[in-house]
Write a structure and sequence with these properties.
Rossmann fold, 2 domains, 23 helices, 4-stranded parallel sheet, globular
């Protein structure tokens, strides 16, 4: 028998806050047009690829007479990619806005991600169904998936499914790849006069879907608050036990936004930022030396404990490690992989590796702990490449630091104790109960998406900005997805994609971190953010991320 926790029951009753202009009622929302847009780069190529959806104007919603044509809306919604807190509220906001516009409007939820649209697997939402998921974490309302919508065959099927159900708009809730697919699908529908609009919503806990228009992707706030609570708990334990160094890996494959935000929240002794590692061309040994300096300095003060935050994708930012991975990919290309896997012992495999790598890459490989060496030769991804996400980088760096300290001790330069513990915080944050910020933001994104559909926009992203202010001051509107796109080389082909946003080393959040990290490395300056608060003073419950606050000069 399913039972509900007291928090579940209470959160069902929470009424998400909307931006001021969306509180007027759908009949009093009008459009203010901005300037035409162009892509962030490769303008001529992107325009050529998106002739029907490129260069459209940004828009904002204001109080005024609704001039949209009155018609029944039949909309489909898709959750795409990894889970992020608040996804359910995007669906709920979309549903509520549709029903507020016209009780006859219909919302289809396609099951299991984009494949649900292709396979025509869906649920038709009603009040009873929707009400079970308000203000809750997860994507279990309809499930998610990672199928890419990128082929003409898929587009033709999607068009047939939409026509069969009378669907006039699709809302795709996802990250950079998912919204790239949304843009391509929107262009196809426009080119074929399908009468189907496509609207995107910006989702990813990694924080790498952001720019001057998207101040924050949804889920980032809740996920980083969840990780920061756990890191703060670990810091308190470290300061109590005083005998362990904790190496904490956090999610963030392509960018270090999560690691940086957690560092700003908790003030650990060490936090690596992948973008800085790449910019300074830091080697594995120089990173190990940097961490070991903090360990030794703290040990000299009698503090044989500490906390280090490691972003998930850190090794890909280390130039020498990137070169090593490229050589391993080449080493195991084609039938060479079968030859390698047929070798009986690790000694035989090691000899095979030593023969195939350059002298420089072999030197890097040789300093790795054996467990990490073997992880580099685990099951390949579908393209035959090393699965970097399987590398336990938190264990890699603690092992390198241990070796570094052993050398220092032999030279009489270190006399402390070093005992490492390891953690990986990833799935713990992806489906957490959304913070008030994410509950409000996501509901607003969904409600706003409905207004974009009502006014006939296609290939647009639902956009809510001014997010560091109270919700009533937020600004709702939309922007063409093509504005965020550029051309990148993917699997040997030039592809239009949304540019990932990396940590800006000249940005205010990193500069604040940079100005304080030397003292954090030496001192025990831990900050304990505690659990997410849902009820109480606004300054506690509705607070945004430190990253966003610093970016906005607050």
């Amino acid at each position: 028998m399913k039972t509900l926790s007291p928090l579940q029951i209470a959160r069902y009753e929470y009424a998400p806050k909307l931006p001021g202009m969306l509180r007027n009622g759908v009949s009093e929302i009008c459009v203010k047009e901005g300037l035409p847009t162009e892509s962030v780069a490769d303008q001529a190529k992107i325009k050529e690829l998106f002739p029907n959806t490129y260069g459209k104007k940004e828009i904002t919603f204001e109080k005024g007479k609704n001039t949209a044509a009155s018609k029944k809306q039949v909309v489909g919604v898709i959750l795409s990619g990894g889970q992020a807190p608040g996804g359910h509220n995007v669906v709920c906001g979309l549903y509520d806005a549709l029903k507020a516009t016209n009780k006859e409007n219909v919302l289809y939820g396609f099951k299991g991600g984009p494949s649900g649209l292709i396979e025509d697997k869906y649920v038709i939402f009603d009040d009873e169904y929707i009400n079970e998921f308000r203000n809750t974490g997860g994507f279990d309302i309809i499930g998610s998936g990672r199928t890419k919508l990128e082929t003409v065959e898929q587009f033709e099927i999607a068009e047939k499914v939409c026509k069969a159900h009378g669907i006039n708009a699709i809302v795709i809730i996802g990250g950079d790849d998912s919204n790239t697919n949304a843009a391509v699908l929107a262009e196809y529908f426009a080119a074929h006069n399908s009468g189907v609009q496509v609207i995107g919503c910006p989702k990813t806990i990694d924080g790498d879907l952001k720019n001057e228009d998207i101040e924050c992707s949804f889920g980032f706030d809740t996920a980083t608050k969840t990780y920061s609570e756990l890191i703060g708990n670990i810091e308190r334990d470290a300061n109590s036990a005083k005998k362990y160094w904790h190496f904490v890996k956090v999610m963030g494959r392509s960018a270090s936004h999560v690691a940086l935000e957690c560092a700003l929240e908790t003030q650990p002794n060490i936090c690596l930022i992948g973008e800085e590692v790449a910019d300074k061309k830091m080697s594995l040994s120089s990173i190990a030396d940097y961490i070991a300096d903090s360990v030794a300095t703290r040990a000299a003060d009698g503090n044989n404990f500490g906390v280090a935050i490691i972003p998930e994708g850190i090794v890909e930012f280390v130039p020498e490690f990137g070169k090593l991975i490229a050589e391993i990919n080449e080493l195991l290309a084609g039938k060479k992989a079968e030859e390698f896997n047929a070798l009986a012992s690790w000694a035989d495999k090691y000899a095979f590796i030593e023969k195939g790598l350059t002298k420089e890459s072999m030197a890097v490989f040789a300093i790795l702990p054996q467990g990490i060496q073997q992880q580099l030769f685990l099951e390949r991804d579908p393209h035959g490449n090393v699965q970097v996400s399987l590398i336990e980088s938190e264990k890699l760096f603690s092992a390198l630091v241990k070796d570094n300290l052993a050398k220092r001790k032999a030279e009489g330069k270190y006399n402390g104790k070093f005992n490492a513990l390891h953690h990986f915080f990833g799935y713990e944050g992806r489906c957490a109960f959304p913070s008030n910020f994410d509950a409000d933001y996501c509901y607003s994104l969904g409600y706003n998406a409905c207004m974009l559909i009502q006014y006939g926009f296609n290939g647009y992203l639902s956009k809510v900005s001014n997010l560091s202010k109270p919700a009533e001051e937020w600004v709702a509107g939309g922007m063409p997805i093509t504005k965020m796109m550029n051309i990148e080389r993917r699997h040997g082909e030039d592809k239009p994609v949304i540019r990932k946003a990396l940590v800006e080393l000249n940005g205010k959040p990193f500069k604040f971190f940079e100005a304080n990290r030397a003292s954090w490395a030496k001192e025990t300056a831990y900050r304990y953010p505690g659990a997410i608060q849902y009820y109480g003073p606004r300054e506690v419950c509705d607070i945004t991320t430190r990253t966003l606050a610093l970016e906005k000069g607050e």
